Amino acid sequence: MLLVVTALAIARVRNLFAVVALGGIYSFLMALALLVLDAVDVSMTEASVGAGISTVLLLGALYLTRVDEAMPLRFSVAPLIVALVAGAALLYGSWDLPPFGDPAGPIHHHVAPRYLNQVMAETGVPNVVTAVLASYRGFDTLGETTVIFTGGIGVLLLLKGRRRRRGSGGAAP
Amino acid sequence: MAGAVAHFGNWVTVILMVIGLYVVLARGNLIKKLIGLSIFQTSVYLLYVGPGKILGGTPPIIAEGFTVYANPLPHVLILTAIVVGVATLALGLALVVRIHEAYGTIEEDEVLGREGDS
Amino acid sequence: MMHRETIPRVVTKLLFPFILLFALYVQFHGELGAGGGFQAGVIAAAAVILYGIIFGLSAAHRIAPPWLVEMLVPLGVLIYAGVGVVGLLLGGNYLDYFVLDPDPVHGQERGIFWVEIGVLVTVSSTMIAIYYAFAGRGR
């Protein structure tokens, strides 16, 4: 799949501008894959967030730092081994998962049928994703909103203060 | 062969996860590490949304004439996870910018080296 | 920023209202089709960020002043939490929408509507505030 090729390119390329551009391509491909998997809301979010906002933020961070990645001093094989072993374990585990697209999978028999059957009678909102997001799982979404709020406050606290140059002491806020 | 088709989505998920993990572990550049973390994150999106698909189903928007819908629950979880992910990515990037201002570099080993000097 | 590039400037001027309109469509049509507060917030923030990239940060500050954006960040969370408190005051549980209207289904719709507004306000203003923080740092 194209996703894997793009991800490999991201792992290899050292110019960080190229990496960020590839990241945008990767996000659009991921949005396409999610669209094929019938997740329209998620696909829309990924396309706007992953390819839009993330790219702008990464470019902004690159502008403030520097563009090229240094060559590693030595090629270490340990991370490769760790990643491959973890991947092999995951592949071994995935063998027991139910086959793709099977309506008999256990995921489709817990609370999802209740949501799908009752949503029109209880909320009158045809988009089940919105209904579950805002109504059935309102507490979750409140928590997520608070997390976003906290993240924004953290960024403001880290970056909003006056810039302190090294050597020119006394400019501390 | 049927087994290969049935598990292809899982393989893609695992391969992406391994690439992300490798980038996080092996690369010293802090921005590159954050991008690797994002790849890892997107593989988790696939892991959640993939099993929710039913062959022949439609997106979970109730309409006349359809009876088979994809499972809406993973969609909700991943939807919020994406937006929270960008907030945490921004927080990480802010930390990287501050590290660059303090140490003049965003390579992990150089930061550690300068920490040892001073 | 790009002060001499004519085509991006004109195209941005043309696109800007339509992006905002699309964000509102996604927001208020989110109960019927794909979309919702999270997506609409991100799209609205993308409009302001595009404007800031093309016309410079000070132009973006004119249409979305930083103090306003920073005030909206907690306001969204408060709207969301306030919906829950209203439910409490009307005799239900926290975040219980059935009591918001005599007709429970209408109550649900109303609750979802206000909750999505809260999400929209938080997400869009947080994204704009983060962009301002990064872009303002460079000078």
Keywords for this structure?
heterotrimer, B: 118 residues, mainly alpha, Helix Hairpins, 5 helices, 0% strand, elongated, C: 139 residues, 77% helix
Helix vs. strand class of chain C: mainly alpha
What is the CA-based Rg of chain C, rounded? 18 Å
Structural class of chain A: mainly alpha
Radius of gyration of chain A, rounded?
A: 22 Å
Which runs of chain C of at least 5 residues are low in confidence (pLDDT < 50)? Answer: none
Overall pLDDT of chain C: 81
Q: Total number of helical segments of chain C?
A: 5
Structural domains of chain A: how many: 2
> How would the global form of chain C be characterised?
elongated
Please outline the major beta sheet of chain A. Answer: none
What percentage of the residues of chain C does DSSP assign to strands (E)? under 5%
- Please, what is the oligomeric state? heterotrimer
Share in helix of chain A: 55-70%
Number of helices of chain A: 7
Please summarize the sheet with the most strands of chain C.
none
Largest interchain contact: A-B, 89 and 83 residues
Number of strands of chain A: 0
% residues in beta strands of chain A: under 5%
Compose a concise summary of this entry.
The complex is a heterotrimer of chains A (173), B (118) and C (139). With 118 residues, chain B is an all-alpha fold.
Would you mind describing this structure in some detail?
The complex is a heterotrimer of chains A (173), B (118) and C (139). Helices cover 68% and strands 0% of the residues of chain A. Chain A is mainly alpha-helical and 173 residues long. Chain A folds into two domains: 1-70, no CATH class; 107-161, no CATH class. Residues 166-173 of chain A have low confidence and may be disordered. Chain B has one domain (2-117): Orthogonal Bundle (Helix Hairpins), CATH 1.10.287.3510. In chain C, 77% of the residues lie in helices and 0% in strands. Chain C has one domain. The chains are: A mainly alpha (173), B mainly alpha (118), C mainly alpha (139). Chains in contact: A-B, A-C, B-C. Chains B and C meet through α4 of B and α2 and α5 of C.
Structural topology:
The complex is a heterotrimer of chains A (173), B (118) and C (139).
Chain A: H1 2-12, H2 16-36, H3 40-64, H4 78-94, H5 112-122, H6 128-136, H7 138-160
Chain B: H1 2-6, H2 8-26, H3 30-52, H4 72-103, H5 108-117
Helix pairs in contact in B: 2-3, 3-4
Chain C: H1 6-28, H2 37-55, H3 57-63, H4 66-89, H5 104-137
